[in-house]
Structure formats: structure tokens, C-alpha cells
């Protein structure tokens, strides 16, 4: 069972972060023990990138991406029944699938549709670059929040397959139920704003929330790379 690091003063509160960059800076303060330990940091795009950038800057580590994709239900873009990892391997929400009227053929059609979108995003955001062999190194995975957590679960499984060492998930906000589900899969879960209740929306943790475009993701990555290479 992994260790949970949270801020008890933020438990069950909403609108606790100004924006994703503010959340990243506050997470970085909880992760300083990983500075100088040759840690690897992966952000889940799109929303995880502006959270991860200030963490990578504070820890002085390279900022990489791990591309996952929610497998959407056929009739809505808002909900999914699992996620694909960068290798195209699926993690399914088995409990949900027992309750929704999807045939095996419909499930496979959604998986293939998701895989095509994932490959396109891989090409645009990572340029076909191979994922590294992590060789037992501490590995941080960052997103802007966890609702169902299946995209994060897919990322965890994939990076373990790349021989990640200690797995640290860092997110500003998460559903209490998802936190409980993920703790057995990681060494440490840093989540400042854990929220219970029957409904959960990542956006509710932020004062300023909007959907990032892939162009904005690339701009953040380019800006971070330039800052890393500026002469001191």
C-alpha cells in the first residue's frame, strides 16, 4: 500500500488553486526530496503539463510526456469505460462495463477509435520518440486531477513495464474513492485536495480552469526546454 500525502486543510474544499501552474508550484514543495535523485517526470497531457512544468523546474529534472487516452462511451465524450496506455494496452472499468449495454463488438470499436486518436497524439506531442528504459529510477507521474483514474492507472502500468523504480503519482486534486483504488499500485500518492461525495469534477478545484489545446502543450514544453538550456 502506497503512502498518501495530502493537505488536511484542503480536504473536501473547492476552488483551492488559482490555476494549474499554482497547483504545480504547491505540489513541488511536497516533492523536493526527489531533487537530485535522477528522478524521471512524466506529465499526462493535456492538463497535466502546466502542473508538471513548475515541478520539473523545482526538481531540476527533464519533463517528458506519457500519452494515455480515455476510452469513451459511444454516446458521450464526457465519460469513459477505461483507458489505453502508449502501447495500446487497455485498462477497463469492469464495474461500469457490467452496468452499460455495450456488446464486445462495440467495445472493440471504441478501443480501435481511441487507439487511432492516441497514435495521432503521440506523433504530434512526442514526435515518435521512444519511451526510455527507466532502469529502476524514481518515476513521477503528474496530471491535473483524478476523477475515475483509469488514464493514470494505464500510465502507471506502462511505466512499470519500462522498469520504473519507485512510482510517485502527484496530482492537485482527486476523488477519495480513486485515491483508495490507486494507493495499492504506487509507492506514494501526493494529492493536496482529496474530495469525497457522490459527484466529483477536477475543474472544481480551480478558480481558473479551461481545456488546453495541443498547441498550448507544445508551447509549454518549448518554453521549459529553453529555460533549461539558458546559460546561468
Walk me through the topology.
Layout: E1 3-5, H1 20-28, E2 40-43, H2 48-59, E3 63-65, E4 69-72, E5 80-84, E6 90-92, H3 94-97, H4 104-126, E7 139-142, H5 150-161, E8 167-175, H6 176-182, E9 188-195, H7 214-229
Parallel strand pairs: 1-9, 2-3, 2-7, 7-8, 8-9
Antiparallel strand pairs: 4-5, 5-6
Helix pairs in contact: 1-2, 2-7
Structure report:
The mean pLDDT is about 90. A 6-stranded parallel β-sheet has the order 1-9-8-7-2-3, sandwiched between helices. It has a 3-stranded antiparallel β-sheet with strand order 4-5-6, with helices on both faces. The longest helix has 23 residues, at about 105-125. With about 230 residues, it is α/β, with parallel strands linked by helices. The radius of gyration is 17 Å and the shape is globular. The protein is built from 7 helices and 9 strands. A hairpin with a 5-residue loop joins strand 5 and strand 6 (about 90).
Overall shape: globular
Largest sheet: 6 strands, parallel
* Overall helicity: 25-40%
How many strand elements?
9
Number of helices: 7
- CATH architecture identity of the largest domain: 3-Layer(aba) Sandwich
Instruction: Give start-end ranges of low-pLDDT stretches.
Output: none
Per the CATH scheme, the topology name of the largest domain is Rossmann fold
Q: Report strand order across the widest sheet.
A: 1-9-8-7-2-3
Top CATH class of the largest domain: Alpha Beta
**Chain-averaged pLDDT:** 92
Radius of gyration: 17 Å
How big a fraction of the residues is strand? 15-25%
Number of separate structural domains: 2
Class by alpha and beta content? alpha/beta
Written as H for each helix and E for each strand, in order along the chain, the element string is: EHEHEEEEHHEHEHEH
Q: How far from one another are the termini?
A: 41 Å
Amino acid at each position: 500500500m502506497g503512502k498518501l500525502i495530502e493537505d488536511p486543510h484542503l480536504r473536501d474544499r473547492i476552488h483551492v488553486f488559482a490555476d494549474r501552474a499554482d497547483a504545480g508550484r504547491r505540489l513541488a514543495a511536497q516533492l523536493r526530496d526527489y531533487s537530485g535523485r535522477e528522478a524521471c517526470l512524466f506529465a499526462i497531457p493535456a492538463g497535466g503539463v502546466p502542473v508538471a512544468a513548475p515541478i520539473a523546474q523545482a526538481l531540476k529534472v527533464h519533463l517528458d510526456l506519457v500519452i494515455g487516452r480515455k476510452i469513451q462511451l459511444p454516446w458521450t465524450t464526457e465519460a469513459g469505460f477505461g483507458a489505453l496506455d502508449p502501447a495500446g494496452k487497455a485498462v477497463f472499468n469492469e464495474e461500469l462495463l457490467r452496468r452499460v449495454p455495450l456488446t464486445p463488438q462495440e467495445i472493440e470499436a471504441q478501443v480501435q477509435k481511441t487507439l487511432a486518436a492516441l497514435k495521432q497524439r503521440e506523433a504530434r506531442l512526442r514526435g515518435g520518440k521512444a519511451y526510455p528504459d527507466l532502469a529502476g529510477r524514481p518515476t513521477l507521474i503528474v496530471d491535473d486531477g483524478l476523477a475515475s483514474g483509469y488514464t493514470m492507472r494505464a500510465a502507471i502500468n506502462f511505466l512499470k513495464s519500462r522498469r520504473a523504480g519507485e512510482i510517485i503519482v502527484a496530482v492537485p486534486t482527486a476523488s477519495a474513492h480513486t485515491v483508495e483504488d490507486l494507493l495499492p499500485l504506487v509507492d506514494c500518492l501526493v494529492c493536496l485536495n482529496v474530495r469525497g461525495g457522490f459527484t466529483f469534477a477536477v475543474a472544481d478545484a480551480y478558480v481558473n480552469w479551461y481545456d488546453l489545446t495541443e498547441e498550448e502543450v507544445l508551447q509549454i514544453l518549448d518554453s521549459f526546454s529553453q529555460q533549461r538550456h539558458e546559460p546561468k
